[in-house]
Design a protein that fits this description.
The complex is a heterodimer of chains A (361) and B (270). Chain A is an alpha+beta fold. Chain A has eight helices and 20 strands. In chain B, helix 1 crosses helix 11, helix 4 packs across helix 6 and helix 8 runs antiparallel to helix 11. The two termini of chain B are 31 Å apart. The chains are: A alpha+beta (361), B mainly alpha (270). Bound molecules: adenosine-5'-triphosphate and magnesium ion.
Chain lengths: 361, 270
Amino acid sequence: MSENFIDIRNISRHFGTVKAVDDVSFSIKQGEFFSLLGPSGCGKTTLLRLLAGFESANQGEIFIDGVDVTTMPPNLRPTNMVFQNYAIFPHINVKKNIEFGMRKEKLSKQELENRVQEVLSLVKLEGYEERFSNQLSGGQRQRIALARALIKRPKVLLLDEPLGALDKKLRDEMQIELRNLQKAVGITFVFVTHDQSESISMSDRVAVMNEGQIQQISDPHDLYYNPQNIFVSDFIGTTNFLSSSTGSSNGENIMVKIDQIGEFSIKNKLNIPENDNETVVSIRPEAIVLSPSPIDKGDIVMEGTIENSSYYGELTSFYVRVQGAENPLIASSQRFDNNSFEGNKCYLSINFEDINLLKKE
Amino acid sequence: MKLNENRTLYIYVLIYFGFLYIPVMFLPIFSFNQGIHMAFPLQGFSTEHYEDMWNSPKLFDALWNSIYVGVVSSLMATMLAFFAAKAFTKYKFRGQALSYGAILTPFLIPEIILAIALLVIWVSVGLPLGLTPIIIGHVLFCTPFCMIILIARMEGFDNNLEEASRDLGEGVFMTFWRVSFPILLPGLIAAFLLGFIISFDEFLLAMFLQGSDQTLPIYMWGQLRFARRLPHVLALGAVIIVATSLVVMLAYWLRNVGQPQEKQDLTFKI
Ligand SMILES: Nc1ncnc2c1ncn2[C@@H]1O[C@H](COP(=O)(O)OP(=O)(O)OP(=O)(O)O)[C@@H](O)[C@H]1O
Ligand SMILES: [Mg+2]
């Protein structure tokens, strides 16, 4: 397993004044399921197209498996792409679509047929050889696009929001299937999405992008529990932000004064400087324990009133106002009736380890 | 809608079609009339004018010239129009509106001015008149029409298809041959047929630049001066009407070839 299977060095792509990709460097491991995640317009597609060879970089280099591909045209790169709209050729049938890229491999008829059947069974569409694109559903088209790319046995498969056009149920199914498929073929996947839950559930690692730059590259767990800045913390899941200022530090821990809650000593994972007024803390809704009766466990214990609640099926969000606080805190819990909270009075507790100290942007 | 209104509309449509087609119908009617006088009452059925037409070698020379000029100029115009349409539909570039206008100009300026300009240039360079300058003139004149058709067709073309082909290992030329060309073929044929028809009945440019090689419209115009020659021109006109209708029907049929049933369009869009 090569650590720097794909090596992206200081890549930039500017369109006039728009810095679609702005001096980005990172590497992707061989066999990894790697996601590019970010809001619309942050440059995910552009970065993927730079890898595929459809965009040329203003600066920087790209290496794939040790080869400099920066100026290599797309037809010579060891990458294949699944397009967002699948781009199935409408004038030829499924079989010819899948065989399209095999012209230069000069396989015998039998070998080619075997390869076609192999990828068709991989995407579970045996028997669809004679269909045309307009006779396929969105999910089937997506699988054909996948098969057409996989038959080439590329070193890297690039996928641009391949599940974006599918309905929720199919999307959930395809997430699992795609993940299993990736494990089975062992090809490096670079997967673009703007859906944070999708990237978290599927990927080995996720790169969060914003405005052409990488904000953080981590495994999904770290991304959720150890966000490195406000953008990532905000983009992944929901969270409570509270203004804070730091006091003195003893190296590992730092004194943090959280607005209207109090002053505590918490872990300083990001090495935030001492005596800094420009900081915030982020606390996930599910890290806040909510109870109708007084709580004795927990590092911080507070009283509050429930102002509002929204029921989401598997969990309920409670909007809790702690005395003197400007904005209510969002706490989520599997409990969905707030009738047990007499007069909507409640008790909350938070552990220090669930508080992330971040620098204000 | 009330029945009355319905009937009014119905009559309107009848008058409209009558206005459009009755004059044209006189050609075939008189072409089968005995004698040389184009007047009612008809003198009786005869195919003599068709025989007369069949025995006019000069007519066939002119017909051949017209087909040659039409095929060559429409092929060139379609090709040029394809490149232009590709540029306009795929890219956004500086001077786009200006170059679009520049290509469209021959279609907008009075044709006679184009004809005089070409004649002046051709003669001042000292080249002989004939089919070559006519072809050049027709390429200029047909390209905007072909381009308008192709732009309409290519506006919906998914550029990702070309990229997918590149991605799957094909170079620029094979991508055109295996993807863009077959998908755009009905549009290319429609553009070619329109270009051909325009060139085939074009008069002014052919008139000014003809030299000793006549195209069919010029030949027909020349024959009109002799009353005795008129009827066989009518016969020729009738044949052309039938042939043109066949070409239009062919173009119409090609439009829908390869399209799924539900996407077939009943209007002949240009
Ligand atoms: N060909 C182009 N010409 C000009 N600007 C472009 C071009 N392609 C992309 N951009 C701009 O670059 C930025 C990044 O675009 P990109 O398509 O990479 O975003 P994205 O992250 O894929 O967004 P989405 O999630 O909406 O697909 C956008 O501001 C976009 O307008
Ligand atoms: Mg995109």
